[in-house]
């Protein structure tokens, strides 16, 4: 079972420190939610964990099962089992979903371990069925002309295919109506596993009524300032973030 350990992480963007000493441990079977006001560094944390080149780690440690993630390339991180689903999935004209997924899966499996084409298509059909995704999805171009809900569901299909050990979901609920939200949440719940840990980033509590987290953390000014369980998320929904800033003496 995986263990992602983040210790005293500092991340800068364009020379400005955004993540400022963040500690968090996510284990297999656990769902951690990170909430917080806009602009507090949640997406910066996700991007830095995945190795996005614009996000410079200036201090701290991140390990997956004791292996130094920060020393790995983006591909190596994916191969180690890290996965990021994003708020705004990219559209890739001319590349079918199936082709994109096969390339991503083979990158995850590594050279010499590529999946045979027929086996891949069988696996894809099985996962799509499991997630209630229409078979025609496979041959459509990646995210092109997809509705918001379809894009998000497609990210969960990627997750199911790549079988990551730690999945980071950054605002996958943004822009979804309640029906689409339920579908995406059901898809996430379908791929919950003791062998997989989740880090779910969300601005709103709504998603967490459908994907019930074990731990809820509030991020402000680049740090986790409070942790609790799902009740903390509900309290934030009722009272907003300002009371917490006051309670903690945070001035921005
Ligand atoms: P959150 O996800 O919590 O809303 P972000 O991590 O997106 O916050 O942003 C935190 C801060 O970092 C913001 O002030 C934002 O302007 C800055 N920032 C993040 N990413 C970039 C980027 N690629 N280029 C410039 N500034 C960025
Ligand atoms: Mg934001
Ligand atoms: Mg964000």
UniProtKB/TrEMBL annotation:
Segments forming domain ABC transporter: 4-246
GO molecular function, a single term: ATP binding
Lineage: Bacteria, Bacillati, Bacillota, Bacilli, Bacillales
Similarity annotation: Belongs to the ABC transporter superfamily. Ycf16 family.
Native organism: Alicyclobacillus cellulosilyticus
Keywords in alphabetical order: ATP-binding, Nucleotide-binding
Protein name from the UniProt record: Vegetative protein 296
């Amino acid at each position: 079972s995986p263990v992602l350990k983040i210790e005293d992480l500092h991340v800068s963007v364009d020379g400005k420190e955004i993540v400022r000493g963040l500690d968090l441990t996510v284990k297999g079977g656990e769902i951690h939610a990170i909430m917080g006001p806009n602009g507090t560094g949640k997406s910066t944390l996700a991007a830095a964990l995945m190795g996005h080149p614009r996000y410079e780690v200036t201090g701290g440690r991140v390990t997956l099962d004791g292996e130094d993630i920060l020393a790995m390339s983006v591909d190596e991180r994916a191969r180690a089992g890290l996965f990021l689903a994003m708020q705004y999935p990219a559209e890739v004209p001319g590349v079918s979903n199936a082709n994109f997924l096969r390339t991503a899966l083979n990158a995850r499996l590594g050279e010499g371990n590529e999946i045979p084409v027929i086996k891949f298509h069988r696996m894809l059909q099985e996962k799509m069925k499991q997630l209630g995704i229409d078979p025609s999805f496979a041959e459509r171009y990646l995210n092109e002309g997809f509705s918001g809900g379809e894009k998000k569901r497609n990210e969960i299909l990627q997750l199911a295919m790549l079988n990551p050990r730690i999945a980071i979901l950054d605002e996958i609920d943004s822009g979804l109506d309640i029906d689409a939200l339920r579908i995406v949440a059901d898809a996430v719940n379908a791929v919950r596993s003791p062998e997989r840990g989740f880090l779910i980033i969300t601005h709103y509590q709504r998603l967490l009524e459908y994907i019930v987290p074990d731990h809820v953390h509030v991020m402000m000014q680049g740090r986790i300032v409070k942790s609790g369980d799902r009740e903390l998320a509900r309290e934030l929904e009722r009272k907003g973030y300002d009371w917490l800033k006051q309670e903690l003496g945070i001035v921005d």
